[in-house]
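Translate structure to sequence.
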């Protein structure tokens, strides 16, 4: 599906009543706030994606996460964080602000990481060096904490991606991702 069609569909979703910081212009510019929010949501299932705002594959991945996960799982204990960064030469903060409509769910917060610190941190966590951790889709079970003082996220419970260069993890499959998340929502968090 072309990027324009995805964008139009997401704009219609916003106009239909979906609200989030995407709909209200709330791109969070300090990625350190992500760590604090992640830990505040420790008893929830958390979906973390790291994307380029101009990458068509990333736009399709964002659409898949919105339509296959957030639109089909209404549980308030499912939250998401989309980290946009300048991974391609044309990427910018303004493009990220426009791309937020791809995941308009009210449970999702959007972040801009100008220096790609989260993607760099994911490189070692995911074991994908020398690649940066972007165009990735990570899920964290309740109870997982972000203990690093820097922007290196913890190892994910589930790791999916859309890169042909990454051998680890599973290629993004929205239905499979949802099927893995749903039982986690029913489980109790680890003490």
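Result:
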């Amino acid at each position: 599906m072309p990027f324009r069609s995805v964008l139009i569909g997401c704009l219609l979703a916003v106009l239909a009543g979906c609200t989030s910081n995407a709909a209200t212009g709330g791109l969070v510019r300090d990625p350190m706030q992500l760590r604090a929010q992640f830990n505040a949501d420790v008893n929830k299932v958390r979906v973390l994606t790291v994307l380029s705002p101009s990458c068509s594959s990333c736009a399709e991945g964002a659409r898949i996460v919105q339509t296959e996960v957030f639109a089909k799982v209404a549980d308030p204990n499912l939250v998401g964080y989309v980290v946009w960064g300048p991974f391609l030469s044309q990427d910018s903060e303004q493009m990220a602000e426009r791309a937020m409509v791809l995941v308009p769910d009210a449970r999702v917060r959007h972040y801009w990481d100008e220096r790609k610190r989260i993607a760099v941190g994911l490189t070692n966590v995911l074991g994908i060096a020398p690649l940066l951790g972007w165009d990735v889709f990570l899920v964290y079970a309740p109870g997982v904490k972000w203990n690093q003082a820097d922007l290196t996220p913890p190892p994910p419970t589930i790791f999916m991606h859309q890169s042909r260069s990454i051998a680890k993890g599973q290629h993004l499959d929205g239905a499979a991702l949802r099927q893995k998340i749903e039982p986690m929502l029913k489980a109790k968090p680890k003490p």
